Amino acid sequence: MKLVSYTLPETPHAPRVGFVVSENQFVDVETACGRFLPDVSGPFDIHRLIEAGPELWDRLRDIEAMLAHGAGASLPRADLSTIRFLPAVPRPSKICCLALNNSANSERIVKGPRHPAVFTKPWTALVGHGEPVRLKLQYGRVHPEPELAVVIGKLARDIDASQAYDHVFGYTIHNDLTSPTMRDEDSFHYRAIHPAAEGEGIRYVDSHVSYSGRYKGSDTFSPLGPWIVTRDEIADPHALDIACDVRDERFASDNTANLFHKLPEVLAFVSSYMTLVPGDVVSLGTALASGGKPGRAVQNADLNKMGGPVSVTVAGIGTLSNPVQRV
Q1: Taking the CA of residue 28 as centre, how many other CA atoms within 13 Å lie in the half-sphere pointing to its CB?
Q2: Which of 206-215, 222-231, 291-300 has the lowest mean pLDDT?
Q3: Which end of the chain is more exposed for a tag (fewer CB within 10 A), N or C?
Q4: Pairing of β 168-175 and β 146-152
């Protein structure tokens, strides 16, 4: 299934979810359930749908198959151009992101952990397909980071890697916007206090640290969408072409095969520290292989100077595109 979260102009505060049935059209899930599943009552948003669990998902999958084969022809099919796209998951409890998880650029890492390195972003950073990325002058340089993201469907705590796919509801696209300017401003080179090597007392250790609150988590720094493609539609999430374009110029062209830490390992690792709940988003890391001109990288695309639109395309899912608005 392809499931889009949206609102209508006449009901802007009432999130809904729809089956994407063609390149341009969708059928509202609640309307379809009224026809085919009278025992299932609305209203529906994507959070309620995910939390309902596999039994409902299977029944909805049957409805989508019927729609694809012409059943329910009298059900209204609306044009995607008439809706406001919400983030694929509007209010996850957390967005977990993988840092430097691309083996195509592993030589750039001078020192780092052998396990996945994780940071989190707030749901307030999310914005849907077609909605503006709002940038302020003081943000400085801001560049895109095209990523495949996993939507959690089942609570995961201390799971084994072999169980990981059982906890996946589906996949979507994440543009993990980053401001190196704010990262530099929020970095410290300082003398950390440690216990003395022996006996009482303390010692100072030269340390470098940066805090990602602003440079990763500012408002609109996480475009997510345009929709969710359920797990059964993607045979191998590590065989997907991924590209990033700014103003019709290509800045990255990669494949998710280059992700160093793969989905099973990532979910097992993250869930050993943080409980993942239905609707949480795990973003697997940036596609970094050069696209377009030789030597070009997404870090060359300063959205605060170039403007937009900025687009991320992932095979089997679609294209997430956002204009850029300076505020």
Answers
A1: 20
A2: 291-300
A3: C
A4: antiparallel
